[in-house]
UniProtKB/TrEMBL annotation:
Pfam families: Aminotran_3 (PF00202). This is Acetylornithine aminotransferase, mitochondrial. GO terms for biological process: L-arginine biosynthetic process. It comes from Candida parapsilosis (strain CDC 317 / ATCC MYA-4646). Pathway: Amino-acid biosynthesis; L-arginine biosynthesis; N(2)-acetyl-L-ornithine from L-glutamate: step 4/4. It comes from the Eukaryota. Its cofactor is pyridoxal 5'-phosphate. One of its GO terms (cellular component) is mitochondrial matrix. The gene is ARG8.
Length: 455
């Protein structure tokens, strides 16, 4: 059986803090060899989980998320545990964030050490870790065939903020080069760039945008992998930037064709438009190279790359990396942040970049990816009426299902069997595990998935 007892201490502590009763849970444990799919439903309303959610958490939390009855308490590597002491294989990594796994010892050490030195000092002054992270990102990016003109980094706290900075930098560039009319952007159908007003304006999903219109004007939505649709929206006079995910994450794990990206670069050059690659989900090793754009020839690289998620392994941090061409239009005071580049986050970011670029980390990602893809292909072949295709690159993978299949039911079944997975657009189940996920967790997790699809 896949479920294990976890320490009851964390629950007991929360129960004490919240005044809930503490009971020892009686899930049997058998030494694990192969999963045997003993299904356990999500915690009931009467359980401590149910009581905590309904009495302590939900009534006081803004209604922005739909969540199952699951309260996560701790994790180690690619395994995560809930308040009911259930153990799960984690194929979500907090939505492509915990790239080195949960409770990574190196990060724990940095958190302790740096918190005893300096957590925050604002951008009124320089600090060592922020400078070190900025220079490391530039040098490692060049070593790994990334952004060939990489020159400067702006540090912030999330993916949305990294994109917000990118959009502002492109606006500034457009205004400097073409005056007040060169302020428009091109984005792509099914892309996701964040929820602030700027990032939301280039995230053309009616579900996210409709409640908040009017958004920023002058945004054109082109079709991914369709250069004609970009040509129709671009003009030298009006367009200042194009923002694109080289592999769309939320939108359904959709890869952009290399030929399309090459043509897109050329088009941007012809119209003096900045090209922004949002690598917040697909960057920092997830594609199997340091950057998704590391697969492309140098001359086709973008002008701006945004990153976040994996950079902090769960600590909130984001960054916008630019070329000298962009740096040249920026002045003191154009942008800023209180927390961005704080010594604690920056030191964690440096550690993560070191780990990802240390041999053979990237090689291993590709081996793990091959293992995933082989099994996903086999699942697709044995379920041709349900599964349409396997998508993605590295450890940003997707399984697209036929329209009549309710993938939320599969996600639920998997959870009940001890596997956490997430969905993406186009009826796709998305796999974004820790980049160092052990082979055993891949095998066990995909066995659970196969079982739940076949049911
Ligand atoms: C490609 C992409 N861009 C931007 C974001 C927004 O990042 P954050 O949630 O850190 O603000 C996300 C988050 O899922 C993303 O996947």
């Amino acid at each position: 059986m896949l479920r294990f007892f976890a320490s009851n201490r964390s629950f007991a502590k929360i129960a004490r803090q919240t005044g809930l009763r503490s009971t020892a849970y009686k899930y049997s444990t058998t030494k694990k060899t192969k999963p045997t799919f003993h299904e356990v439903s999500d915690a009931s309303e009467e359980s401590h989980t149910g009581q905590f959610i309904n009495k302590v958490s939900k009534p006081y939390t803004v209604t922005t998320y739909a969540r199952p009855n699951l309260v996560l308490t701790h994790g180690k590597g690619s395994y995560i545990y809930d308040l009911e002491n259930r153990k799960y294989i984690d194929f979500t990594a907090g939505i492509a964030v915990t790239c080195l796994g949960h409770s990574n010892e190196g990060i724990t050490e940095i958190l302790k050490d740096q918190s005893e030195k300096l957590i925050h000092c604002s951008n009124l002054y320089y600090n060592l870790p922020a400078g070190e992270l900025a220079s490391k990102l530039i040098h490692k990016t060049k070593e790994h065939n990334g952004l060939n003109d990489a020159s400067r980094v702006f540090l912030c706290n999330s993916g949305t903020e990294a994109n917000e900075a990118a959009l502002k930098f492109a606006r500034k560039y457009g205004k400097v080069k073409g005056g007040d009319s060169k302020t428009e952007f091109i984005t792509f159908a099914n892309s996701f760039h964040g929820r602030s007003m700027g990032a939301l304006s280039v995230t053309p999903n009616p579900k996210y945008q409709s409640p908040f219109v009017p958004l920023i004007p002058g945004i054109h939505v082109a079709e991914p992998n369709n250069i004609e649709s970009v040509k129709n929206s671009m003009s030298s006079e009006k367009t200042c930037g194009v923002i694109i995910e080289p592999i769309q994450g939320e939108g359904g794990v959709n890869s952009m064709d290399e030929t399309f990206l090459v043509e897109l670069r050329k088009l941007c050059n012809d119209h003096d438009v900045l090209l922004i690659y949002d690598e917040i989900q697909c960057g920092l090793g997830r594609s199997g190279k340091l950057w998704a754009h590391s697969y492309l020839p140098n001359e086709t690289h973008p002008d701006i790359v945004t990153m976040a998620k994996a950079l902090g392994n769960g600590f909130p941090i984001g960054a916008t990396m630019i070329t000298e061409k962009v740096e040249n239009v920026l002045s003191v005071g154009d942008h800023g942040t209180t927390y961005g580049g704080n010594p604690l986050g920056a030191r964690i970011g440096s550690f993560v970049v070191d780990e990802i670029t240390k041999e053979p980390f990237l090689v291993n990602i590709n081996e793990k990816s091959a293992k995933f893809v082989a099994k996903l292909n086999q699942i697709a072949e044995t379920n041709p009426d349900k599964v349409l295709k396997v998508k993605g690159k590295g450890l940003l993978l997707g399984l697209q299902f036929a329209e009549n299949i309710d993938i939320n039911k599969i996600v639920e079944k998997c959870r009940e069997n001890g596997l956490l997975i997430i969905t993406a657009g186009m009826n796709t189940i998305r796999f974004v595990p820790a980049l160092n996920i052990p082979d055993e967790a891949i095998d066990d997790g995909l066995a659970i998935l196969e079982h739940c699809i076949e049911q």
